[in-house]
C-alpha cells in the first residue's frame, strides 16, 4: 500500500538569523525516500503478518480437526458398545445415560437456585454482589 505525502514548501529559519534557501529538489526527494522506506517496511510487515495469520489458521484448523476426530471416535466407541449389547443391556445402558443427564440438569438447576438466593440475600443486606 503506497502512502501519499502532502508536498509542502516550508520556510525554515536559522537561529543565527540568516535564511537558507531550500531548493525544490531536496523537498521532493525526501518524501520519495521516506515513501520507499515505508513501502519496504510495510512489505516486510505484511510478510510477518501473513506468516502469523497462516500459523494461527493452521493451529486453529488442527485444533478443530482434532476436536472433530475426538467426537467421532467417542461416537464410534459408543456405537460399537451398543452393537455388542443385547436388547436388555441396551435398555439398561440407555436408562443409565438418561439418569446421568437428569442428574446433570438437576445439579445445574440447584446451582442456579443457590445463585439467585445469594443475590437476594445480598440485595436485602444492601450489598452489591461481586
Automatic annotation (TrEMBL):
The keyword Transcription does not apply. Residues 50-115 form a coiled coil. It holds the Pfam family DUF4355. Keywords: Coiled coil. Residues 19-31 have a biased composition (Acidic residues). InterPro entries: Gp46. It comes from the Bacteria. Residues 19-42 are annotated as: Disordered. This is Phage capsid protein. It comes from Staphylococcus pseudintermedius.
